[in-house]
Amino acid sequence: MSIEGKIGAQLTPEEIPLGNLEVLAFELGLAYTNTYLLGDPETKSAVVIDPAWDGEQIAGAALDRDWQISAIWLTHAHFDHFGGVSGIVKSTGTPIPVALHPLDFPLWQTNGGAGYFGITEFESGPEPTIDLEPGMELTLGKYRFEVRHTPGHSLGHVIFVSEGLGAVFCGDLIFSGSVGRTDLQGGDWNTLLQSIREEILVLPDETRLFTGHGPPTTVGKERRSNPFVTGEIL
Ligand SMILES: [Zn+2]
Ligand SMILES: [Zn+2]
Known about the structure:
The chain is of the alpha/beta class. It has six helices and 15 strands. It has one domain (10-230): 4-Layer Sandwich (Metallo-beta-lactamase, Chain A), CATH 3.60.15.
């Protein structure tokens, strides 16, 4: 039995134009995780970043737009960032490669901590076959996304940086006014702050941050007002 769709979720995605791409942002699952479906209207190719839950809905939104999901990119392997993978793959009926940093594979193997959060039924979907490494380039349409390794929230946490789009998909590294928790397996506070300093704060102020939870923000806004970044909260 599937647990897909049982949990309250925001199934109507927000449409966000980003360069020539269309981004559909869903807030899904019991952790209200942001899932991003990125489509290239020209090639009809699409990728999903962190399919949190309700994979059938994500696949349906792609189908509605005649997009083919060519890959699933995971920022990290907490259950609330890949609980929708199995539903996507089942809905499309085609194998879709899943990308993850190998240091988060042990976390993936334990269902991303789903049991710890009281979720007894969890379908992890196909095993990741694309090993993400720092500096690796992923593409969608004419846009490149560089993989940066940003440990601290989990050992193998990564972000996807597109300089061409001026945008970062940053998972649970940093949020609007907050940062990722470090009390779970593999978490480390100083490492998290170092990742934010070295991979986020080096980017131009206008760079848009699409976070794993909560509203999008920008590097400049977080640089000025995020209390964990300014040192107001240590
Ligand atoms: Zn997480
Ligand atoms: Zn999360």
